[in-house]
Design brief:
The protein is α/β, with parallel strands linked by helices and 198 residues long. It contains six helices and nine strands, in the order ββαβαβαββααβαββ. The strands form two sheets. A seven-stranded mixed sheet has the order 5-4-3-6-7-9-8, with helices on both faces. A two-stranded antiparallel ribbon has the order 1-2. A hairpin with a 2-residue loop joins β1 and β2. The two termini are 30 Å apart.
């Protein structure tokens, strides 16, 4: 993701340190996700991993959460938090989501992209990222996209960068996904789920 600031001498990706997780209705979020015991989940561009920490107990001890981000400091924060909570199923990965993510094809049950699709679109990389995720998901696997409503902030990015639900749906369906459902996650965010090709 684009560099925006420096943390400890290291450039941090755009939006690093912020998380929409603190803004959403987690009950609605959980009810929308087809996540079961033993699921393999990819939290793409996970930041400091608040979503990963929430998803890990849902996938259970036999599950696996891949938490992928470029922001090394955020991944270290996640590792420390997971250790304190005795969560052993999260695997952090320092990776650029616009490049190859080193996970076996057709191995992911659910991929979460929480308030990052608009960043990829701004970088003209949304199609590339969505195609890569489609390759990682199992046939019929789920893509879950959290985005900011197209309203003035803060919180969130400038309104001109935000995606309406129709824009989010178009990006995903143009990449071969099938829309499943959408939900309001509170004052600032919405969630849309999509199915990868069978």
């Amino acid at each position: 993701m684009p560099d925006s600031k420096t943390a400890g001498g290291q450039k941090a990706p755009k939006g690093a340190g912020k998380s929409s997780f603190e803004l959403i209705n987690t009950d609605t979020f959980q009810s929308m996700l087809p996540i079961q015991e033993g699921a393999t989940v990819l939290d793409l561009a996970c930041g400091k991993g608040l979503y990963s920490l929430f998803l890990a107990p849902l996938a259970g001890e036999k599950g696996r959460i891949y938490a992928a981000d470029l922001w090394e400091q955020g991944l270290e924060m996640l590792e420390q938090e997971a250790k304190e909570k005795n969560i052993t199923t999260i695997r952090t990965m320092k990776t650029d989501a616009t490049e190859k993510v080193d996970i076996d094809p057709n191995s992911i049950d659910l991929c979460l992209m929480a308030t990052v699709l608009h960043d990829f679109k701004e970088m003209n990389a949304a199609e590339k990222v969505l195609d890569q995720v489609k390759n990682l998901l199992k046939p019929g696997g789920c893509l879950a996209v959290v985005e900011f409503k197209k309203i003035d902030g803060p919180p969130g990015p400038p309104v001109h960068l935000r995606l309406t639900p129709d824009e989010t749906k178009r990006l995903a369906t143009d990449s071969g996904y099938t829309a499943i459902e959408s939900a309001d996650l509170g004052e600032y965010n919405y969630l849309m789920t999509f199915k990868a090709p069978e």
